[in-house]
Amino acid sequence: MKYFLLYFYSAFLFGQTGLEVAKMVENRKTPNDQSNTTKMILTNSKGKKRINILKSKSMDSNKKQIMWFLEPKDDKGVAFLKIENQGKDDEMRMWLPAFKKVRRISSKRKGDSFMGSDLSYEDMSSRKIEEHKYLRLEDEIINDLLCYQLEVIPNEKAQSAYSKHLSWIDQSTLMIIKEESYDKRGELKKTKEFNNSVLKGYSVMERVFVKDVQKNHSTEVTFEGLEVNLGIKETLFQEKNLKRLPKN
Amino acid sequence: MDKVISKYSDHPLRSWFIKQSLDSPIRTIIFSILITLFAASGSRFFIIDDDMLKILPKELDSRVSWDLIQDEFGSTEVIFVAFGKEGKSIFNPGAMATLWDLTKALEATSQVEEVISISSARRMDNNDGFMEIDDLQSDRNLNQEEVDRIEEYLEKNPTIKKRFISEDNQYFLATIQPYESSALNTFRDSITTISNPILIDYEIHYGGQAYLTGTMPELIRDDVVGLAKIGVLIMTIILLANLRSIAGVAMVLMLIGLSLIAMIGVQGWVYHLTGSDRFLFTLANTSMPIILLTIANSDGVHVISKFFKELRVKEDSRKALASTMDSLLIPIFLTTITTIAAFATMTVSPIEPLFGYGIIIGAGIAWAWFLSSLLLPAVISLKKWDNNSIAIRRRSIFENIIKKLGKVVLTHPKYVFTVGVAFVIIGCTGLSKIIVDVNMVNFFEPGTEIRDSMDFLDEKMAGTVDIRVRAEGDMKNPEILSSMRKLQSIMEEDEKVSTSFSIANVVEQMHRTVMDDDPSYEVIPDDQDKVNNLFTMYSMSGDPDDFSSMVDYEYKIGLITAFSKVMSTIEIFDYVEKMNREVMLLEASDLDLEFTGMIVILRDLVDMIVSSSILNIVFSLIIIGIIASIFFKRILWGLLAVVPLFSAVIINFGFMGYFGIELSHVTALLSSIIIGVGVDFSIHYISQFRRLSRTVESDKLSREVIDDVGYPIILDAGSNMGFGALLFSVFLPIQNIGGLMVFAMVSTSIGTLTVLAALSELLKHRLIEKEDALR
Asked: Tell me, what's the ipTM?
């Protein structure tokens, strides 16, 4: 979930240029760590669903994250660790209980799907300000909230799968409310809707709904049992911790 | 009414018909043309489509399985594009860049759902302990070292290689899948339009069922137009040579033209109103215009030639025309009914387009009757005829031939009959040699571009005939996956089946990759949890669509796909039978397997063609026999009417066996055509026999009948050599129909004037006595 929080930050604020708004979002106050039970419902074009439930803990704005699979039954026991490295490929490891092995995995394409969902690794990663151009468009009211509207264009360094994004950011919380992402041909690829709440003084995301309009496939992610600033230690994000599900 | 009766005929209905033409010709002409134009206006709804699948009934098992697979896994009808250079390895940076450009350009097309090529494929590697899933071709521009790495990967994974590269490493293959809703002709056009300029420096070969189906409408359209022109030309020459009257020939051509446009329009209307695929114009329908052309010609020839003969005697065109129509209205009506009946039997055929064929040509024949009974005499009545013209004064070439033929037949009726029987016996012995073949590749002659391309893909690539097995069960269950792999191994035992793939192959590859790329682990894991782990791991970095052509969203239905080179009908039957046996052995309570794909479709089509041909022959002969018996008020006449037809059908099919002409869904309609067209000759002969038996002595009866109807029959058959136009078709089965129909015209017309004439002569006393009794 922290991916999303950081993600929002990378766009906006007002009286200002698009870039200034983006910096304001990036600098907004975020919790040190987070814990939640993530429920992911995938629905394909024929209405068939897959449901995944994971226990997730993260810190450093999701730069470090560990997840244990709870459901479906087939995946129970599988665990995933991700550590983002500055200037290097992300380090991703997976515990495969049936093989009793930890395997490192790698995906070189940022546009690749995360767990078969409509969210790609790029969607879930921090949007680096220097790798994007921000244009401020006319403000709009979305769901009764006055929003900044930004056009975010990735440059070559970003190696993005998209040509641009249109983002709507709530001016009061600096949280993203809605986004449209366009593919390299300039055609609408995904629409995203976000629901946020306030926890211990922090604005946090509690639901995101993504629809791939080209594939007519959608993903709804809800973050249940959300807790922040639990004092999660950095030692949690180690390979050995993949093998056992924490009690809380 | 009495006045009318006394004026033109002793029958009120015939008199009414003749009155319309002679007393109100302009009104009759305007009325006929307006209705024709209205019918023809339906041509805007006329659609050409030759999708092999639409030939099959929707409830047929293989069609049901096919539709299910299309629904679950998207269209399985694809276009293959192969390109390369003979004698040169395709593994070079330039060719890789071209493949990249081709793939990207095709992917950007709105009708394309997926392009499967090296440029779109993924690779799975174990790299220093990493399970790495990446693009097989990472960039457009690669150096030779990077290209070599791709080659190395493909050599390590031969199943994957077979899908992308020719056996000799000289050609790349891209497989293009359309969206299910795409019209295959526009899909095919857009693929070739995009590919040709990109691949300008290479040899290009296109293939696949979607390519064939997409190419057919244009080929059919061109073929029909070309054949109709040649048919009309042949007919015109024969008619001119015999009728020796430009006006007479023009009138017959007018009748043909109006019938033809009305029929095409009716097909459009019926398709528009019913929306049924049965009324699409397919390859099988290509012969339809030529057939109507000859039937309409037949009606016209009988009217014009009889009119000339009457005019020679009566020297008054109105009297001659009234007499002509009085004697021909009934036989033309009867031939129309029997011909429609023969074609109507096609509606019992399990082959879908033959249903539409039977109905639509029936409508065309009915309209040709209407026009020849009303419009044609009306037009004839408006012209001032020169009684001294050669056409009216002198006998034509055919008339002289007939006179000589009649003499031979009536002098030696037993010999003539014996020769006819001998031909039928020879024909019978050829029936067992008939080969059934429905593979569309064989519809094109070797040497044609389309055939050579398909042959190339068969020889150099994995083959173009797809074989599918739909597997229903838990696709993560190792036992089920192992059964699928076992079935694949059995499928590949046949030397013509070059490759097969399924989700089981992917599981094996993932297993090997996870186990440090150890080849001994390229097997299905023995534990379901391991399979689960493999899929979960893949989902963390692979695209969910990577497996969409092999397994459904819920991992409950899998698809095994194999490709085979073209098989003969016997090989198809043996293979399908063997696979069905194997499928039954492998099936379990938790695994349901259905063997399908184009190969099974072809097998079912063969069965349907055989049953369709038998049904058509039996039904049409029975119906014609019954109709003739009722009209001529005697069962013996009914039997005699079908004798020349039955003989002609046997002889034709026997010759097909001897000359190796394959029976297909296109040539299957031959029996209906032979019976439908040939029945006219019998009906005209019998009508005239009965008519003249009232006034002519028995010794002279047969000669008089041959003299009277022999000429129009031979002229009719001769001008029907328009069927010969079909010999110029680009489609082999249509060419075969052309040749066989020319032969059928000769055999049915000569059969009528020899076998039927000889039988009538032999049985004349019984027949005349009965006619007397009926009077």
From this structure: 0.80
